[in-house]
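User: Hi! Is it possible to get a structure for several chains at once, not just one? Here's what I have:
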Amino acid sequence: MVKAHLQTGTVIDGFVVGELLHKGGMARLWKVTRQGADEPLLMKVPVLQEGEDPAAIVSFEMEQMILPRLKGPHVPRFVANGGFDRQPYVVMEQIAGTSLLPMLESLPRKPEEVAGLAEKIAVALDSLHGQRVVHLDIKPSNIMFRPSGEAVIIDYGLSRHLDLPDLMAEEFRLPYGTAPYMAPEQVLGIRHDTRSDLFALGVLMYFFATGERPFGDPQRLKGLQRRIWDDPQPPRLLNPAIHLWLQEIILRCLEVNAARRYPSASQLRFDLLHPSQVTLTKRAHKERRDSFFERLRRKSEPLRSLVDHPPSPAAGLAQAPIVAIAIDLDNLPEDVSAALRQTAQRIIERTPESRIACLNVQKLSRITIDQSLDEEGHSRHVQRIVKLQHWARGLGLAESRLSFHVLEALDPAEAILDYARANTVDHILIGARDNSAMRKFLGSVSGRVAAEAPCTVTVARSRKPQL
Amino acid sequence: MRLALLSDIHANLPALEACLAAAREAGAERFVFLGDLVGYGPDPEAVVERISKLAASGAIVLRGNHDEAAVAPTNRMNAAAREAILWTRDHLSEDARIFLAQLPLSVADDDRLYVHADASQPSAWNYVTSPLEAQISLSACSARITFCGHVHVPAIYTLSPQGHAVGHSPGPNIAIPLLANRRWLAVLGAVGQPRDGDPAAAFSLFDTATSELTLRRVPYDVESVAARVRACGLPESLAARLLKGR
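Assistant: Yes, the chains can be modeled jointly so their relative placement is included. Here is the combined structure:
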């Protein structure tokens, strides 16, 4: 292994080394540029001195393995890997701006701001999880924002790629992560649950909204394990400005048993986007920590029995799709409506973790475009919500898995497509209008949705008898 | 260079042909057969003939325990395997027997070692099924990457800087980088008798330039081979096993 000392001005594999930006325990970050190009790049070099933590090498290898396999705006773009035979490094895009770390100087933040930040981070986590990576070190210093607004998640040294060997699993007795943010199952060494990242995001939301860390910053294993049996103060106790819905969301993310958290980052995001649709449970109304005896009872249980044990990575991620059902309350024939409901039921039975959004488009005419703002318009809107709820009653779903949305638009197909794009919908269900003069005249909404949707579309029809 | 690695063919000609075709289509430039050409399956002669022709044009072929048992006395097999090997002996030509008898136990190729079972004692035919067994095999050789078979369930093991091994179950069609800084042991799946619950034939591709290993699964007509196993009077359990892949 070459112990070459990098310094400003060194040229390696065509990269010109600039200033040293960061000196950490595990790695150093250098600003670099490619010879003949101005694009700002970052070179990460592991700390390899004798007596250093062997985890530094292993976590560097993990990053070399994972980063080249990641795509999209929510990760730094990979540029090059350097081998251990000469000089180990990873070169990646340098993201402009800073991480969330400086914000810690001015906590707490407004609840709406916290929800807005978390919503963007959830989008990034959804992208990461979709690429079969669990980050396992979500914290303010690992989250940056592009000038265009997207959250970027950096530092994959503790991450797990569900399709690749987990090099970090091999010998480290202590769990690796950042103490305040680590999920209970991660404390117990489980490294393949995407919901661990939702716990960390819950800690971040709690911290940003209250100014206090829910589990402090424990330095020993016993202190880390405490979060498995001991619950934090409800956030509203620390900051009464926090809305009930935000406390509901935060405490759901902080559930010890991962099965009680959101099943996916996109479902968490869905709630952050639609606060009025969040079902408020005991979590929202919790006013103090659990009783001393309740906590003592949990403390006496085996810790492993309190956390969820997700299936092996090979079994694949839990299916937790967001399903949007487009329901035409005005023109849908009863038989098509029934076919739509049956199809929805089949999907719901197959995916018990799915989230169902019932949509209706209230078509605006060009002349009366602002009528919906007046009282009459408002009552029409409420009436439609009531009709949607009535339609969905037949699905027999818990309130917490359902939401209702009336969209107002000139173009129903475009409204449904916009909704699907904005809410990372996985599956659209829509009924086909009859072969009526209406369709001939207006064109088929379902046809256009099927052709242009960013996800799976199912078009329901009632089977016509063969003549 | 892109290598196609095929192990545990077990006299299953349709599975072998399916893998060879898929490997060629994927751009494989060289074939490595990691042993157990025969045993269990109904077509030992045809499989040996096919592979010996590939060997003549540069393929590497290793000896497995069934290849050894087909040409020399053995008492280290379970009942079904033993019954099949006695049947196999009666269905091999003299040429095939000579070909099997001269196969090497291991071959070193650049920074890679090919061997049928545990490399610490190739002729003992020990299985590598755990990180500890992988560690034993890896500590007995100096090659950066060891490829072996014998287990019929694919797995990848790697040694940490401290010398501890960690295991991984590779999924199909995922290029796994065997990082240059580490030592690796890859147990390949079986072409002719998978035991990981997927009856599709398994082989692997290794790209020497990127050091990436990719497991491939190739469907073939399992029912017809199971029918041939029965028609040949081989044990029923061997036919059932092909259908289940376990």
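The radius of gyration of chain B is 17 Å. Chain B has a mean pLDDT of 96.

User: Great, thank you!
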